[in-house]
Amino acid sequence: MRTGIRTPVLAHPRRVGVGLRRSLPVLGWLLPALVVIAFVIGYPVIQVIIDSFTSKTRFDPGEFVALDNFTELMAGGDQDLFWLSFRNNLVLLVSIPATILVGLVVSSILYRGIRGSRLYEVFIFLPFLPAVAAISVIFIYLLGWEGPLNETIRALSLEPLAQAWLTDPGLAIWSILGVVTWKRLGFVVLLFMARMLSIDPDLLDAAAVDGATWSQTVRHVVVPEMRAIIRFVGILGFIEVFSFTFAYVFVLTRGGPFKNTYTLEYLLFSIMFRRKLVGLASAVAVLLLVLAVAVAVYQMRRARARVAT
User: Fold this and answer.
1) 218: closest CA among 208, 231, 233?
2) Omega of the bond leading into 169 within 30 degrees of 0 (cis)
3) What is the model's pTM?
4) Closest C-alpha to 279, from 23, 75, 52
5) What is the per-residue pLDDT across 36-70, written as a single tens digit (0 to 9) for each?
6) For residues 248 and 95, what is the distance between their CA atoms, to the nearest angstrom?
7) What is the CA radius of gyration of the chain?
8) What is the largest CA-CA distance in the chain?
9) How many Å apart are CA 303 and CA 281, to the nearest integer?
10) pLDDT band at 117 (very low <50, low <70, confident <90, very high)
11) Are 172 and 257 in contact (CB under 8 A)?
């Protein structure tokens, strides 16, 4: 009688031994790289985790304080600043759907074909090439009170709309968001264009034969075909927001006005290099690491679920 239950087949010990012997040369080639990775990445990460549980400063090895650093960040003296920084990171996450939406619109227009589209592609991608510091310096000038943006607004007789974009506590973080979005847009468009060009033209032709407009074709044919690249752009944007926004804040506002543009990265910098509190700064780094690991685990589980289905 067949029960439908499959009995697991165990590998023969001799086969396992042969497999191990065959893998030894490969491990020998990988060993130098593994040693470098352990030294460059593994050791610093472990050291930061250890430091996060101590009262270590730049001038004192400190002592073990258990979770006191994390408590101080979330519910102690730095409570408001920590949560303000976290909130600002969440604000900057708006750049992800913004760049995806605008990138899809721009890519679909360029793919459809307009006069001088190649030139437009170059101009759209150009902002991605310069360093963040260079871009930020340019925007300090553009967004200044007497800068070109406000002068243009005044020239259009819209004086009430002129703002202190980088020095107003309520507008500064949103101005940084605009710069981040503008900087990332070219790279997103490049990825989307590359994916669009790989879509089977027969799918687009079939939609046209069925009477679909170009916007309907993009919504019902192109976007479903681009789910993987859109997901990749979203994950990459998340990593950038929590790991690569320091330069924007440092050059544009230095965390001001009145610390209203602090992000977790800038908070870590301030605690580490201004207040010299290594243990407390390490706690911020550990929280960022936990956040990154959580996103990575979530993405891997989703990927495995898609493969299983």
Assistant:
1) 208
2) no
3) 0.85
4) 52
5) 888 888 888 999 999 999 999 988 888 999 999 99
6) 13
7) 26
8) 88
9) 33
10) low
11) yes
